Amino acid sequence: MNSGDDKPKSEGEATLLKAEPVKEHKLPTAVLALDAASDGRQLFAACFDGGVYQVDVDTGNFERLLKHDSYASGVWHLPTSQLLISAGYDGVLHWFDLASRKPVRQVRAHRFWSWQMAVSPDERLVASVTGQYLAGGYKYEPGPEQEPSVRVFDVQTGELRRSVSLGPPVLSLAFSPDSRCVAAANMMGDVRVWDLTRGELAAAWATPDFTSWGIIKSHHYCGGIFAMAFTPDGHELFVCGMGPMRDPMAGNGKQTWQRFAWRENPPRKTGEIEDGDRGNGLMETIEFHPSQKCFFMAGRLAQGKWNAALFDSSSGKLLHGLDTKMRVTSAAFSADGARLFLAGAVGQQKKKDGKLPEFGRIKAFHCAA
Amino acid sequence: MADLTTEDFEEREALRRFLTKKFENERKSAAAASQNAAFARVQGLMTCADLFDLEKLPAKDKERYGPGTFGLHTLLARHLVENGAPFVMVANGMTWDCHVFQHEIYQMLVPELDQVIYHLITDLEQRGLLERTLVVMMGEFGRTPWLNASRGRDHYPDAWSLALAGHGIKRGVVVGATDDDGVEVTEKPFNEKNLFATIFTALGIDPHAEYDIPNLATFYRVEERAKPIEEVLA
Fold it and tell me: A142-183 pLDDT, tens per residue?
């Protein structure tokens, strides 16, 4: 594994202590979402085969807990109630009781896919985003919403608490640290924050820097904001994806994050990744380290030095980057911040001896800040 | 040129035709003859300019075919066939070349294709045109049954499918099969030669005609006397 930068680290800066993962595990199919138990010894992975798996970090042994009728796209571990909630491209949310090892309920959240889901930090609400990209105009502008794109449910009862609208497809969402607000963003770079306690839209803006229109050959839009995270103080919202491409099929937009002071009126961009720090490739996950000193972004490496990197939370400067040799779709820190878990996939291979080779990957790294 | 009236254009064209014909006759110039033939073809197209005017396509039809360029171009193709065009190709291939974002883009492309093809076939049938029109829906290769690391599928020439409808084609027939994973052809493999032999045969054209061109190798309409796919021929 290559370190993406050789900048000297000052005392107190975060780093991944080992360039090589301390653990690497294989799953049958690609992992689209990952969460970690508080102790960092058990992981939960939502996979292409619809399965939601529990993975033992030390041994790599895994057990399928439940199965969606299509790709499992989201999973969230609730440490207080020992519940697991997952979402899938079947549009269904599953509740699973880890103590009794039994399913609790299923709720149809959407007619179309659940692109992403999240649980509020107070474990009272679960939200999921959806939306099909259908042509709405000559340039293939996305058509109007076919169903509410953002839905919020009660964790304890599964009842629908709120449905709100944002132009499809809505690819990402996040709860604020105080659990009062939920943010969501779509393929066209529209971002919204709703105050759930007041039942009103709290902020709305758009960033054009994550969306492509195919100038060269594929004359449609693609891209969007693939992940987002509030700062631990809740004042800013970070979003990530990749910059525009002339050829939408190239996958070589600039690795990009931006930060916004969303409470200002109008919301204001307060920073973004520096050009010299980035290569090319879609960034699909962004997470704050429990120390709050740094944040982590990862995805795919198309060209450049890294596809997973730590950045300083205040300055936004790249602290440490590495090439994980896999596409990273999801990341999770252990509660103490000592470990970082990355999930995703390598390229799928042809069958060997009648079996499809495993292409899902989970890697664990030592981390310190 | 925008201000040029039809009468002005015709007068200028008549003068151009006269002078070049005179030049061609006096010099016995093959180049001039070729240029005149090209002008004739272009002029033929120009007289049909109205057929290509997207604004003149019926609004209700545009709505049915959908808002994107593929629907509009397919509607234009129907319009051209209705007006006697012998061959029309609607190109929409590059959008399907999803080496990345395969799921994200196909969620838009698949329903669009479904809608557009349904309306094309239905319209041709309702107008009595399907029985004398062959519709071929195909790409030049398939996509890998496995995903790459970038959410995409790469080129895969070993196994893929296409659809034929209309003149000379039997309805409701599926020929050939792959294994469950779509990796290998397990039943009745056909290649591009078989496909073109089928197309020519369906249209009543001899697929095995040969062209002897001076100083060049014999040109075969379909090489190796490949057989058409009899199962799909009406």
Answer: 999 999 999 999 999 999 999 999 999 999 999 999 999 999
Mean pLDDT of all residues in B8-25: 82
Give yes or no for a contact between B167 and B202, defined as CB atoms under 8 angstroms apart: yes
In a domain, residue A215? The reply is: yes
Confidence of residue A294 (pLDDT cuts 50, 70, 90): very high
Q: Using a CB-CB distance cutoff of 8 angstroms, which residues of chain B are in contact with residue A347?
A: 146-149
Q: What is the DSSP letter of A335?
A: T
User: Which is nearest to A327 in space by CA: A265, A273, A282?
Assistant: A282
What per-residue confidence (pLDDT) applies to B31?
Answer: 78
Domain count, chain A: 1
Q: B221 touching A, CB under 8 A?
A: no
Is the pLDDT confidence value at A67 over 90? yes
Beta-carbon separation of A348 and B148 below 8 A: yes
Residue B150's region, left for phi above 0, alpha for psi from -120 to 50, else beta, is alpha
- Return d(Cα A63, Cα A54) in angstroms, integer: 5
Domain membership flag for residue A352: no
Chain A CB contacts of B152 under 8 Å are 249, 251
> In terms of Cα–Cα distance, which of B192, B71, B66, B84 is closest to B129?
B84
Chain B positions touching A219 (Cβ under 8 A) are 69, 95
- pTM for the whole thing? 0.88
Number of cross-chain residue pairs from A and B with Cβ atoms under 8 Å apart: 97
Cross-strand bridge partners of residue A200: A195
| Predicted local confidence at residue A15, as pLDDT | 62
A25 within some domain: yes
- On chain A, the residues whose CB falls within 8 A of the CB of B149 are 300, 326-327, 344-347
Q: Is the pLDDT higher at B43 or at A17?
A: B43
Of A133, A302, A347, the CB nearest to B104: A133
Residues A195, A199, A200, A201: is their CA dihedral positive or negative? positive
How many whole angstroms separate alpha carbon B145 and alpha carbon B153? 7
B142 interfaces chain A, CB cutoff of 8 Å: no
| pLDDT, tens digit (0-9, with 9 covering 90-100), for B36-64 | 788 888 888 788 888 899 899 999 999 99
Q: Which residues of A touch B66 (CB under 8 A)?
A: 135
Token pair 């306690």 in the structure block, residue: A197
So what's the ipTM on this one? 0.84
Residue in A134, A248, A302 closest to B111 by CB? A134
The whole-angstrom distance between B134's CA and the closest CA on chain A is: 27
Percent of chain A exceeding pLDDT 90 equals 84
Query: Which residues span the domain enclosing A282?
Result: 15-347+360-368
Transcribe B83-106 into DSSP letters: TT-S-------GGG--SS-HHHHH
Residue of B95, B113, B143 to mutate, testing the A interface (most A Cβ within 10 Å of its Cβ): B95
With CB atoms and an 8 Å threshold, state whether B181 touches A349: no
CATH, residue A115: 2.130.10.10
How many residues are there in chain A?
Answer: 369
Q: Rounded to the nearest 5°, which phi and psi values hold at A171?
A: -100, -20
Looking at chain B, the whole-number percentage of residues with pLDDT higher than 90 is 63
Instruction: Name the residue among A30, A326, A324, A351 with its Cα closest to residue B147.
Output: A30
Is a pLDDT exceeding 60 seen at residue B100?
yes
